[in-house]
Amino acid sequence: MERNRALELVKVQLTDKRYAHTLGVMETAVMLAKRYGADVEKAELAAIFHDYAKFRSKEEMKQILIDEQEDVRLLGFHHELWHAPAGAVLVRKEAGVNDEEVLSAIRWHTTGRPGMTLLEKIVYLADYIEPGRRFPGVDDVRTIAEQNLNDAVLAAVKNSILFLMGKKQPVFPVTMDTYNDFIQNGD
Length: 187
Ligand code: DGI
Ligand code: FE
Ligand code: FE
Hints:
Distance between the termini: 30 Å
Bound molecules: 2'-deoxyguanosine-5'-diphosphate, fe (iii) ion
Oligomer: single chain
């Protein structure tokens, strides 16, 4: 799909603030794809659509997760985690994107997963370091992202887990699995 068409489809789904974030993720994903040798067009498309379902109701997302037999553990965790898998489903159904690599990068953009693909890592990291993001530790991850993709994704996962723990929030098991995978397997 052409970039401007994709942006049109996404813009109407999002607030202005979230759309600005999306443009930042798009720009960052393209830069990372060039740096690390990923498919630039796929990275751009996945980045554009990554938060497509962000403003769907809890009820709609929950029904999608049930209908599509997504990981049942999601239902026992914060609904913030639902927009990523629900987004992958909706982007296929409503926007007609059928590229499994792109859909998978959307699906795993919040938690990561063990054995992440290059494209999944790029979208996950771009979501974390896009220019509009301002939180403790993000500049360190930006610096690492200039040198080593795996180290940067690991740093982002680790920061996210520490952030959740600092707020006494539960950590979704797949987020922990992602962390363990990077620690044990290095990529
Ligand atoms: O959609 P974004 O705000 O751009 O970013 P995101 O999709 O990475 O994260 C959405 C939210 O999900 C964020 O507020 C933190 C939360 N989150 C990420 N991983 C976990 C999590 N929440 C819980 N409870 N457990 C997790 O493992
Ligand atoms: Fe998201
Ligand atoms: Fe995002």
